[in-house]
Design brief:
By secondary structure, the protein is mostly helical. The chain is 68% helix and 4% strand.
């Protein structure tokens, strides 16, 4: 479970990325809630910004050790590694598309985390 401070940090990152990419608060909330209907390129770049600021990606490339270091203590290393095995090889047309697809894959597999 995330602490209130961690949740606040995530909200701040999301807000900064929404402003940077020019998407609405509603678009950001929809994505974070698992609604992948909005395929606006700006939403995909929001996903990239968010994953980059979290340290999960660098220049559009997943950082598996960072993901494991941050998610492992919350969900268990083996569960995180299983999702990484499914998701981390995903590549999109550009770094925004890759980030969006990675986010979607992690979200859709979170039941296993």
């Amino acid at each position: 479970e995330l602490s209130p401070a961690q949740k606040a940090e995530i909200r701040e990152r999301a807000k900064a990325c929404a402003e940077q990419e020019g998407i609405s608060k509603e678009q950001a909330i929809a994505l974070r809630s698992g609604n992948f209907q909005d395929t606006d390129p700006k939403v995909k770049c929001f996903a990239n910004c968010f994953l980059e600021r979290t340290g999960f990606e660098s220049n559009g490339v997943i950082q598996p050790n960072e993901v494991l270091a941050k998610l492992g203590p919350l969900f268990g290393e083996q569960k995180v590694k299983a999702v990484q095995a499914k998701c981390d090889s995903i590549k999109g047309a550009d770094k925004c598309a890759t980030s969006y697809e990675l986010y979607k894959c992690y979200y859709n597999n979170q039941a296993q985390i």
